[in-house]
Specification:
Structural class: alpha+beta
Helix content: 25-40%
Radius of gyration: 21 Å
Bound molecules: aspartic acid
Strand order of the largest sheet: 4-3-2-6-5-1-11-12
Shape: globular
C-alpha cells in the first residue's frame, strides 16, 4: 500500500497536473508516521526561559520516541497515540492530566477523546474529575461501552467501574496553574480573554498496516465556568480519524473549532481532493481506439502530494482565523505525511516517520 516506488510514475503525473513541482514525498517509502502537539498559543521566545524551552522539547521528544518505538515494533496507531498522550498527560508542563488548568471554581474538569480510523469507533469524556489519564477513559468508552461520549459524574463512575487509576484533586494541581487561576479571578476576566488558555495535548498516527488514529486530552480553558466543554472531546471538532483520508488532533480556542468542525472538515476535504486528483490523473492515461483507458488507477496506488495536504490544512485554519479562532492542528495521512498547521505564534509540536525523520519544534519560525 505504501510502496511509493511502484506508484511513482502515476504520482509524477499527478504532481505535474497540479503544480510545477513534483512532491518530495514521492520517492519515499513511509511505513508509519506520527505527529504530536502540546498546545498552541502566544508561545514566543521572549516569554519562555531557555530551561523551560529545553524541558518542553525533552518532554515532546520523549513522547514522540515512545510513539515511534511502538510503531517501529509493529504496534497499532491506537496504542502509539494512547501511550504518547499518557506521557504528556503525566507531564505537569501541559494542560492535560497533571498540570491541567483550573476552572472558575478552582476545580479541574478534564476532557478527552480518541478515534480509530479503521472502523470509525470513537470514545470521549467531558468534565471528568478523578481519572489520572483521561485518554484511557476515552478509550474505555470506545472499547467497553455502547456510547461515544460520557460526561461529568457518570463518566467518573464509569472510570471507577472500569478499574482505571483514580486520583484526588491535588494530583492535578501545580503552583503555576494555581497562580494562573488566581490571576484570572483577581481580574474577573473571562476564560476566553486570558493568554494562558492553551496547552492541550494530542497525537495522530498511521501504523504499518495503514490504520490511523487520533486522540486529544485537555484541562480546557483556565477559568472556564458553567460546565463549559471545548472542542477536545468533540469528535469531528477536536479529534477525527478515518483511514481513507486523515487523522487530526486540534488545539486552540475550542468554540471556533466546534463551529467549523475543523477535524472532520480537513479529513473530508482531503478525501474530496484525493478523488478529484485521481480523476484528473486517470484522464491522462492513454486510451485505445474505443476510448477505453489502458489502465485504471486504483485508490491504493495513488496519493495526494505533500503540498496538497498542507494546503487543505492551511485553508481550514485560515477559515478558523477568519471567524476569529486561534489555534492549530496536527495531521497524519494514509500516505505517510505527518504535519501541522496553526495560526498562533507557536505550537508545541513534533513529528516522526519510519524513514528516520524526527523533529520537535515550539515557535512558528521553526520547521
Ligand atoms: N481546545 C481546548 C479547549 O477549548 C483548549 C486548548 O487547546 O488549549 O478546551
Amino acid at each position: 500500500m505504501f510502496k511509493f516506488a511502484i506508484i511513482a510514475p502515476v504520482l509524477t503525473m499527478a504532481a505535474l497536473a497540479l503544480s510545477n513541482s513534483a512532491s518530495a514525498q514521492t520517492d519515499r517509502e513511509v511505513n508509519w508516521s506520527i505527529a504530536i502537539h502540546g498546545g498552541a498559543g502566544t508561545i514566543e521566545r521572549e516569554k519562555i526561559t531557555p530551561e523551560k524551552d529545553a524541558e518542553i522539547r525533552a518532554a515532546l521528544n520523549k513522547a514522540l520516541a515512545e510513539g515511534s518505538r511502538i510503531l517501529t515494533a509493529g504496534g497499532s496507531a491506537m496504542d502509539a497515540i494512547t501511550a504518547t498522550i499518557m506521557l504528556l498527560e503525566n507531564d505537569p508542563n501541559f494542560n492535560a492530566g497533571k498540570g491541567a488548568v483550573f476552572t472558575w471554581d478552582k476545580t479541574n474538569e478534564l476532557d478527552s477523546s480518541i478515534m480509530d480510523g479503521s472502523d470509525l469507533s470513537a470514545g470521549a469524556v467531558a468534565g471528568v474529575t478523578a481519572t489520572k489519564n483521561p485518554i484511557l477513559l476515552a478509550r474505555a468508552v470506545k472499547d467497553n461501552s455502547p456510547h461515544v461520549m460520557l460526561s461529568g459524574k457518570g463518566a467518573d463512575q464509569f472510570s471507577r467501574e472500569q478499574g482505571l487509576e483514580q486520583v484526588t484533586p491535588d494530583y492535578y494541581a501545580t503552583p503555576r496553574r494555581l497562580k494562573q487561576i488566581e490571576d484570572v479571578l483577581a481580574q474577573q476576566v473571562s476564560a476566553a480573554d486570558v493568554d494562558y488558555k492553551f496547552g492541550t495535548v494530542g497525537a495522530v498516527a498511521m501504523d504499518s498496516k495503514g490504520n490511523m488514529a487520533a486522540g486529544t486530552s485537555t484541562g480546557g480553558m483556565t477559568g472556564k465556568r458553567w460546565g463549559r466543554i471545548g472542542d477536545s472531546p468533540v469528535i469531528g471538532a477536536g479529534t477525527y480519524a478515518r483511514n481513507r483520508s486523515c487523522a487530526i488532533s486540534a488545539t486552540g480556542a475550542g468554540e471556533y473549532f466546534i463551529r467549523l468542525g475543523v477535524a472532520h472538515e480537513i479529513c473530508s476535504r482531503i478525501w474530496t481532493r484525493f478523488l478529484a486528483v485521481r480523476d484528473e490523473v486517470q484522464a491522462t492515461v492513454p486510451k485505445d481506439k474505443d476510448g477505453v483507458p489502458d489502465y485504471y488507477i486504483h485508490a491504493s496506488e495513488f496519493m495526494l502530494p505533500d503540498e496538497e495536504v498542507q494546503k487543505i490544512a492551511d485553508e481550514v485554519i485560515a477559515e478558523l482565523g477568519a471567524i476569529g479562532g486561534t489555534g492549530g492542528i496536527i495531521f497524519a495521512t494514509p500516505w505517510g505525511q505527518a504535519g501541522y498547521s496553526f495560526n498562533t505564534p507557536g505550537m508545541y509540536r513534533g513529528r516522526a516517520t519510519s524513514d528516520g525523520a524526527m523533529s520537535v519544534s515550539i515557535y512558528g519560525d521553526e520547521e
